[in-house]
Amino acid sequence: MGVQDQSGSQNTNRSIIIIGALFFIFGFVTWLNSVLIPFLKTASQLNNFESYLVAFASYISYFVMAIPSAWVLKKTGFKNGMSLGLVVMAIGALIFIPAAMSRTYVMFLFGLFVQGTGLALLQSAANPYITILGPIESAAKRISIMGIANKVAGALAPIIFGAILLKNMDAIEARLEGMGAAAKTAELNELASLVITPYAVMAVILVGLSVLIYYSALPEIETDREDETLAATNKSKTSVLQFPNLLLGTLAMFLYVGVEVIAGDTVISYARDGQGIPTDIAKYFTTYTLIAMIVGYLIGTVTIPKYISQQKALQISGILGIILGLSAIFTDGYISVLFISLLGLANALVFPAIWPLALNGLGRFTKMGSSFLIMALAGGAILPLIYGYLADTFDTQSAYWIVIPSYLYIWFFAAKGHKIK
């Protein structure tokens, strides 16, 4: 009996390592946008609004694909669904090759949307999978480990790709200003071609991971049985729309993902264009944002629920976001940019805190409620676009006013909104 228990524990640990590798991939691919935005802004000669279509193309796929992903997973199961998601992401990476060769911005955006589609499928499978995999009382610990894997990858991505794509960018931009049309086109074509090798390598790695997961010993988990035990709950309810805490939580998630993406994806461009910091230094600020998030995760694993509740952590996060946002707006230079990076600390505990508060009491409507929260990740598509519009209309620093009402609403949801039944 003891041998069986040990074997089961080893299988669970092996599964956690495999899913951890997936969360690493999520983080790496997602936070590449922070480098792609300034890179494509130069290579495709874009304004701020146009450059933030990179975030839009990546995150709008969550809105479009959340419910179709649930349908696909019902057909394929979790394991095969994760494998399929990685193949879709590889196809998205390969689209970057013809996009670079023709320097077509719309094709780059299409590649990002396809990658986002694969990510939506992966997220829809991996988030509930890691929750159910093992005892429910240790689920928070597993989710924290996944969050750290995700953010470590997010911290590495801008360093690795920044070294390839943003190398000598200030000198290249200075050269471009004095060039004739033909020479400028040739220089921009050469610049765009820098993405070909790294994205080809990424496609190969994604396909390799897909094959590994397809042939892995990951156990298939049955979730429909759990729904039957919850069927008696909320007998009088006929629609998921009858749960105010879910609807208010969905808006909180939408705004949170928007400010999270703004903190990570705009900070390099803000440092360069708004505060005149050289690109070779500016390219590290997204990494600082992700390190701040990792610190926040570690604080959360130590303090929740032993010292503070999830609701209290969410309230503190909202207040901290307001303080850091205002500090960034009313200071200048490196200090202002560092305040934007420190928003990672305010953001760290928001995602894991919104889920249980928004889904509390949903019973048999839990799966549909989860789809609402996945769709709300589209906030990462919309808010950065609004930031880009404000940056073009006013300036890159004033555009950060958008984060203040967002954090204020997150505080409201934590203090009052989640209690409305």
Summarize the helices and strands and which ones pair or pack.
Blueprint: H1 2-30, H2 33-43, H3 48-51, H4 53-76, H5 78-102, H6 105-132, H7 139-165, H8 169-177, H9 181-192, H10 196-214, H11 224-229, H12 244-265, H13 267-274, H14 279-282, H15 285-303, H16 310-329, H17 333-347, H18 350-359, H19 366-375, H20 379-393, H21 403-415
Helix pairs in contact: 1-6, 1-7, 2-7, 2-9, 4-5, 4-6, 4-19, 4-20, 5-6, 5-10, 6-7, 7-15, 12-17, 12-18, 12-19, 12-20, 12-21, 15-17, 16-17, 16-18, 16-21
Organism: Salegentibacter flavus
Membrane topology: Multi-pass membrane protein
Subcellular location: Cell inner membrane
Would you mind describing this structure in some detail?
With 421 residues, the chain is mostly helical. It has helices at 2-30, 33-43, 48-51, 53-76, 78-102, 105-132, 139-165, 169-177, 181-192, 196-214, 224-229, 244-265, 267-274, 279-282, 285-303, 310-329, 333-347, 350-359, 366-375, 379-393, 403-415. The protein has a single domain (9-217, 240-419), classed as MFS general substrate transporter like domains (Growth Hormone, Chain: A, Up-down Bundle), CATH 1.20.1250.20. The protein is built from 21 helices and no strands. Helix 12 packs antiparallel against helix 17 and helix 12 (244-265) runs antiparallel to helix 18. The longest helix is centred in the first third of the chain and has 29 residues, at 2-30. It is globular.
State the main characteristics.
421 residues, mainly alpha, 21 helices, 78% helix, globular, MFS, galactose transmembrane transporter activity, Glucose/galactose transporter
